[in-house]
Structure formats: C-alpha cells, structure tokens
C-alpha cells in the first residue's frame, strides 16, 4: 500500500485537507490535548499543507487559552476507523485573538457558529443544564449586529506541526512511520507498530 515517506506525507496532507472540508469524515473532529494533560474533541477548521499548520476555533475565556498562550506543546489525535489510519501530530500552539488570521476566521464563520461566543464562558457553573447562551439566542440564526459582541470572545488556536506519526492497521501487518521537522524539511523513519 504505502511504500515511501513521500506517499505517506501526501496521505497525511490529503486526509487533513479533506477533513477540513467534509464534516462527515472521522478526522474532522480530532482529539486535541494540551500541556496540562487535558484533552477534548475539537473541529478542525483549517490545514495549511505548505506551512504544516492546523487551526481550531476557541473561546478566549476557555482555560485552555491560558495553558496555550503564546506558545505551548499540543498533541492532536486523528483516527479514521473505516480506513484504519491513525495520525498523531505534535507541535507548538498559540492563541490568536486580535490578528488578521483570527479576523479572517471570524468572517468565514456563520452567524449560527458565532453565536456560541455570546454566552457564558466555558466552565461557568449553572444550577440547571445550560447551553450558556442568552435566552434570545437559542435556536435562531442571529444577525450580524446580534453576534458582533461575540467577537470579543472568539480566538483561534494555530498549531505549527513538528512531529507526525502515521499508523495504518492491516491484517497483513501494521505499518508505522514517523516524521520530524528539520530545517531542510521533514525527515522520515520507519518504526515498529
């Protein structure tokens, strides 16, 4: 199936690129782990194959933003069960809030998605089960004016990838390759599964 590092890197890039565009693909919602050993499922919003970066959206008030700050280690786990491919990546993440990239991410989001940043911050305690949204925002597609205040709470997590671990499960024998980012590009090595 995959016999060269180039084929595997291409496979990784194609899978991550497709996951951004298709919410029905398993790799669209990977597990993201921060340096405090906290992990959560997040939606992959962008993958830049040239720079090897991932982008996720987050609430600036979330505790993970304090953990990540301007630079912290992050791991991301992608798994495609039907294809039997696992991709683990490690890199350095940073939070961007008042930057052109964060502004562009905000602008490309729907108002329905933007409304998630209107309510209480993540982790705020409540007596009742709650979405955290203000009552008026529940179940509606708000206007641009209604979601404008939410921009203050919107941020992105940008992760520059430094290590890739690709694992293919197969009855004929599993295959695993790892890559490290060097100054000249990616250096690959075969490893035992």
From TrEMBL:
Residues 32-94 form the Pyridoxamine 5'-phosphate oxidase Alr4036 family FMN-binding domain. One of its GO terms (molecular function) is FMN binding. InterPro entries: Pyridox_Oxase_Alr4036_FMN-bd, Split_barrel_FMN-bd. This is Flavin-binding protein. It comes from Altererythrobacter rubellus.
């Amino acid at each position: 199936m995959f016999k060269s590092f180039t084929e595997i890197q291409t496979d990784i890039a194609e899978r991550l690129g497709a996951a951004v565009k298709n919410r029905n693909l398993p790799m669209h919602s990977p597990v993201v782990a921060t340096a405090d050993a906290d992990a959560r499922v997040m939606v992959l919003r962008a993958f830049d194959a040239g720079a090897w970066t991932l982008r996720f959206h987050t609430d600036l008030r979330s505790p993970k933003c304090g953990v990540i700050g301007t630079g912290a280690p992050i791991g991301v786990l992608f798994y495609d069960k039907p294809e039997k491919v696992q991709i683990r990546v490690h890199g350095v993440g940073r939070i961007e809030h008042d930057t052109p990239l964060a502004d562009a991410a905000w602008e490309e989001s729907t108002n329905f998605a933007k409304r998630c940043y209107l309510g209480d911050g993540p982790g705020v305690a409540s007596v009742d089960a709650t979405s955290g949204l203000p009552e008026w925002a529940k179940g509606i597609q708000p206007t641009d004016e209604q979601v404008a205040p939410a921009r203050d709470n919107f941020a992105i997590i940008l992760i520059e990838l430094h290590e890739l671990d690709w694992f293919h499960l197969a009855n004929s024998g599993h295959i695993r390759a790892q890559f490290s980012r060097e100054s000249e590009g990616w250096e690959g090595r075969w490893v035992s599964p």
